[in-house]
From TrEMBL:
Protein name: Diguanylate cyclase (GGDEF)-like protein/PAS domain S-box-containing protein
Keywords: Coiled coil, Membrane, Transmembrane, Transmembrane helix
Domain EAL residue range list: 24-277
Keyword Membrane: yes
Highest taxon of the lineage: Bacteria
Location of this fragment in the whole protein: 485 to 769 of 769
Species per Swiss-Prot/TrEMBL record: Pigmentiphaga litoralis
Length: 285
């Protein structure tokens, strides 16, 4: 277990330290400061259609920490998600994604952007209003925005979930169910959910070509998705075998994974990349 050194500073074993309350609250303070200081960055990972076409891109946040370097969400999201800081983070990412969409469009690229929404954020009673407000203020096209929810969001209060999804879908926003297969919901659950897309977790994708049980599970997911008319995105496609396995079963499947594209800074897609990631602006709060 993690222990504090005598002087109250954290000792050397970093990973276990993530467990301690002191570490959590320090990291939380630091993240709050980092967001204010403009240290978060948007990365994009392309989603590739059957003809090698770009079907869209997922927005993935990174923290360019002044001492620790570029941090993945795993290093800071759990801490953010344990507090309301996740609301600040998610809204920052959403606002920047709207601005990115506009700048891409101005440069002739109409690109659908998929943005992750954490459970705590989605469960806010004013979630739909804040999204609508953001779209109003930025002028971003709701028809080019997908919000990614995970299954655990959906089991909370079905009526509330349905109301929010319906309200935002009416504007043209699409919803994706992220990490499909890893959460609590069953396949039959999809019937009640007015979502547009499922993202099959990479766990199923990776094993499918080599493991019969994973393969048949994946095949049932694909069948159900098809019968509900849902778009399917496969996450974590790393090998040609995985891509072939998927495309043989669902020719129109969209693939996202290192085989096709690794997440890269969003500014790579812009000709003028000067002020893409601006520090927190009044737009946000
Ligand atoms: P996710 O939404 O399921 O995103 C996919 C994750 O898989 C990303 O990890 C991506 O870099 C990684 N990935 C993509 N292709 C491959 C592959 O071929 N192989 C492997 N092994 N991994 C692949 P990342 O960027 O570390 O993000 C982790 C999670 O953090 C995301 O999982 C998402 O749940 C969350 N996240 C990322 N950005 C945001 C954000 O802005 N807001 C919120 N609330 N959550 C975010
Ligand atoms: Mg996602
Ligand atoms: Mg996922
Ligand atoms: Mg995830």
């Amino acid at each position: 277990r993690a222990r504090l050194a005598g002087d109250g500073r954290l000792a050397m074993f970093e990973p276990a330290m993530a467990e301690t309350a002191v570490h959590r609250s320090r990291l939380e303070d630091e993240l709050r400061r980092g967001i204010q200081a403009g240290e978060l960055q948007l990365y994009l990972q392309l989603q590739v259609g059957p003809q090698g076409d770009v079907a869209g891109a997922e927005v993935l946040v990174r923290w360019d920490h002044p001492q620790k370097g570029l941090l993945s969400p795993a290093a800071f999201l759990p801490v953010a998600e344990a507090s309301d800081l996740i609301l600040v983070l998610d809204r920052w990412v959403l606002a920047q994604s709207c601005l990115l969409q506009l700048r891409l469009k101005a440069e002739g690229r109409r690109m659908r952007l998929s943005v992750n929404v954490s459970a705590r954020h989605f469960q806010q009673s004013d979630f739909a209003e804040t999204i609508i407000d953001l779209l109003d203020r930025t002028g971003a096209d709701p028809g080019l925005l997908t919000l990614e929810l995970n299954e655990n969001v959906l089991v909370a209060d079905p009526d509330d979930v349905l109301a929010k999804i319906h309200r935002l879908s009416a504007l043209g926003i699409e919803f994706a169910l992220d990490d499909f297969g890893t959460g609590f919901s069953s396949l039959s659950y999809l019937k009640r959910m007015p979502i547009h897309e499922i993202k099959i977790d990479r766990y199923f994708v990776q094993d499918a070509p080599v493991d019969a049980a994973s393969a048949s599970l994946l095949e049932s997911i694909l069948r159900v998705a098809h019968s509900y008319g849902l778009r399917v995105v496969a996450e974590g496609v790393e090998t040609v075998e995985q891509a072939q396995f998927l495309r043989e079963r669902v020719p129109e499947i969209v693939c996202q994974g290192y085989l096709f594209h690794r997440p890269a800074p969003a500014s790579d897609w812009l000709q003028a990349s000067d002020d893409l990631v601006a520090p927190v602006s009044p737009l946000l709060f």
